[in-house]
Amino acid sequence: MLANANRLTPYLFLAPAVAVMAVALLYPIGYMIWASFLDWNPSQRIGEADFVGLRNYVDLLGDAAFRESFWVTIRFAAIVVAFEMVLGVGLALLLDRELRGMTLLRTVFILPMMIAPIVVGLVWRYMYHPTVGTFNRVLDDLGLPSAPWLSDGDWAFASVVIADVWQWTPFIFILSLAALQSLPRSAIEAARIDGATGWQMIRHIKIPLMMPVLIVTALLRMIDAFKVLEVILVLTNGGPGLSTEILALRISRTASEFRELGYAAAMSNLLLILLLVLTLAMFGYTRLTEARTARLARAREIEVG
Amino acid sequence: MRHWKLTGAAIAVAIAGAAGADPYEEYAGTTLVVNFPAHPHYDAAIRVLDQFTEETGIEVEVDQLQYLKMRERQTLELTKDEGDYDLIAFVVFSKADYVYADQLENLARYFMNPRLADPGYDQADLIPGYVENIGVAGGAKGYLPGQLGSAYGVPFGAETSILAYRTDIFERHGLTPPDTYEELLDLACRIPELEPGVGGMASRAASGHQASHAFLLHLAPLGGKVFDDAWEPVINDEAGVAAANALKTIVDCGPEGGTTFGPAEAAAAFKQGQAAMFLDSIAFAAGFEDPSESTVAGKVGYVMHPMGERRASQTGGFGLAIPKNAPNKEAAFLLLQWLTSKEGDFAVAMEGGNPSRFSTYADPELNAKYPYSETFGEALKFADPDWRPIIPVWGSINADIGTTMSQVLTEGLDPQEALDGVAERTRDTMEEAGYYTWSPAE
Fold it and tell me: A37, A59, A213, B416: most buried by Cβ count inside 10 Å?
């Protein structure tokens, strides 16, 4: 009897925290899932909305604008994360040394990510301005024709990618730098003694050792890139046409402009599922990599033994 | 006998007192909470609110928000059992949502109340196009006046379209301001040849609402409309294609980067001398004449929105309404009535607001301060309350028109093909919303 009570005690202590977490975390998600089964406009209370079952999800399958937004989002997230990873990790490898003024340089590099996205959007919009913007002025000074930064679909897509890469490369940089600085010095010293070149050290020692951190970093950035809204809202508002209308913007417009909260909730849920699958895939890959590394280490120990 | 004389005198005094009673007395000391947009007209209105408090003893607290944020806030506020706002300004396309959801007071019961309604209010002086567009619902097509329609709001901060042009450029080249669409389109592309570096006309054209607005601005005068009387989309008829081509011509011959312009950017291009014409809301005129922000101040002339098949300028902007869940409805009506009365309308106009009354536009004092006022008053006689539909599903149709027009402007999509697509998708939206429930079976 007493033993049973002792077993239950930890659960009793945990219960309040679990209850609070469940309400705070799961209730909004449950609310959103429920809303996606409703034909709900903001002038109604949720209880007054009609239940439509899976109709919102079925409608999404035939919604050409949603499909377009979906592909714009995938393309945007894949491109910005690839660029940011290469630039961020590259910068970290470059600045991972103790030189005079390096602290200041590192601080300067992370400034863009500290600026509010709305402000970033406004600043870049001004720089992309067709007549008074910085870029076209420079092109003009060089005797080159001005570029349609935001007024042509392909250029506008490239322009929002550039702004995002500018703002979020520092995020990759700072995490990569932290990962680099926490690498075991013994492995690096051993490689150096064995005569490894700088590039060989990066390729065979530093990057493989950093990989778990890099995967999590890329994952976090990918999740964020799928939800980016403010910068694109200010820069292009999704245009020209639908060329930069990412899913978050489509969801926001569906809820506030088209006043279809149920339909917007269904879109959000699909985005959530997509991100969940992506997260699980990334974690699965990390586990596989770790297991393979552990197997190799064991094999080496046996060889040495 | 003496007793009866005294009593009679007392009754006479009481009656006389009642006859001359202050209609605001009962509400003095009340504090009204109003929700206004961040907009030049409402900035002007806020400047005269002290005068209202002084005259009535009613205090006013203003919650001023960017207009889309204001709409979001109202959407939440109006669904509550007891709201926080006594009086709201609403953007015209909210009329459909709020009236359909039964969230606004029908103003008839206030105008019928002799204790509240000012006999000198003069409803006939209000600009009909504005009242029909913003204030009335329940008649023709549901969102227009008709025999069974009723007023849910009063225009306040309403706008129409007008053509502003650079008098110096027109004089230099012996040009006449355009009166027809043919002349407008000809000048839009001729001016850049005559004045290198200056676009013909600055227009909003950014993807979404802005491109849709710009297209519809030309659709009505060119004889088109979005729906026929049976709600069938006719946006892809000859007039629709002509309107899309007109917009493309204007943008192609306009200032650089025009496809990204919202109204503010288009107005800025005109103010900075990058365009010779500007066809949009009258609300921008005050900015054109302000030398601190405009390089063309004093060099701008105004004429009516050019005519195509017919003369039809836009109607839009804001109105005032009392939410059903307002805590102080009668005092709120007194403020609504005061602000939109002849005196209120004039006071706000003198502070830089947009009048909603013909008498204000004709006022010599206002014309001395803003010389373009009389032209605006003349143009308002042709304000079209039905230049775009005000229906609950308009948001998604509007966005579709806007993104499709943006593709016409930037990706070279054929206007006919583009509008055929819009018409097909619009029909699906209308069908789903139940607009063909009463159509005869095919």
Answer: A37
Q: List CB contacts of A292: < 8 A, sequence separation 6 or more.
A: none
DSSP at B126: B
Counting every residue written for chain A, the total comes to 305
The verdict on B293 and B402 lying in the same domain is yes
Peptide linkage before B23 cis (omega within 30 of 0): no
In terms of residues, how long is chain B?
442
Any idea what the CATH number is for the domain that residue B115 is in? 3.40.190.10
Q: B96: domain range?
A: 25-158+315-382
**Does the distance separating the beta carbons of A241 and B260 come in below 8 Å?**
no
Chain B residues with CB within 8 Å of chain A CB? 68, 71-72, 75-76, 78-79, 97-98, 100-101, 103, 206-209, 211, 255-260, 274, 392, 395-396, 398-400, 403-404, 406-407, 409-411
Question: Do B35 and B177 reside in the same domain of the chain?
Answer: no
**Domain membership of residue A115 as a residue range:** 67-270
If asked whether residues B146 and B166 sit together in one domain, one would say: no
* Contacting residues for B240 by C-beta, under 8 A, at least 6 apart: B219, B224, B234, B415, B419
Domain holding A193: CATH number?
1.10.3720.10
What is the number of structural domains in chain B? 2
What separation in angstroms does the CA of B127 have from each of A171, B132, B139? 57, 9, 18
Do A43 and B274 make contact, defined as CB atoms within 8 angstroms? Answer: no
Contact B392 A259 (CB under 8 A): yes
For chain A, the domain total comes to: 1
Q: Are residues B171 and B196 in the same domain?
A: yes
How crowded is residue B109: how many other Cβ atoms within 10 Å of its Cβ? 12
Q: Do the Cβ atoms of B391 and B142 come closer than 8 Å?
A: yes
Burial degree of B146 (CB within 10 A; 0-12, 13-18, 19+): middle
Which two tokens mark A297? 């280490």
Chain A partners of B209 at a C-beta cutoff of 8 Å? 257
- Digits of tens for pLDDT over chain B (442 positions)? 444 444 444 444 444 444 457 899 999 999 999 999 999 899 999 999 999 999 999 999 999 998 888 998 999 999 999 999 999 999 998 999 999 999 999 999 999 999 999 999 999 999 999 999 999 999 999 999 899 999 999 999 999 999 999 999 999 999 999 999 999 999 999 999 999 999 999 999 999 999 999 999 999 999 999 999 999 999 999 999 999 999 999 999 999 999 999 998 999 999 999 999 999 998 888 889 889 999 999 999 999 999 999 999 999 999 999 999 999 999 999 999 999 999 999 999 999 899 999 999 999 999 998 888 888 888 888 999 999 999 999 999 999 999 999 999 999 999 999 999 999 999 999 999 999 999 876 5
Tell me, yes or no, whether B274 lies in a domain. yes
Do residues B111 and B179 share a domain? Answer: no
CA angle A54-A56-A61, nearest 5°? 100
Residues B67 and B106 in one domain: yes
Shortest CA distance to A128 belongs to which of A110, A112, A150, A143? A150
Residue B7 lies in a domain: no
The reply to whether A38 falls in a domain is: no
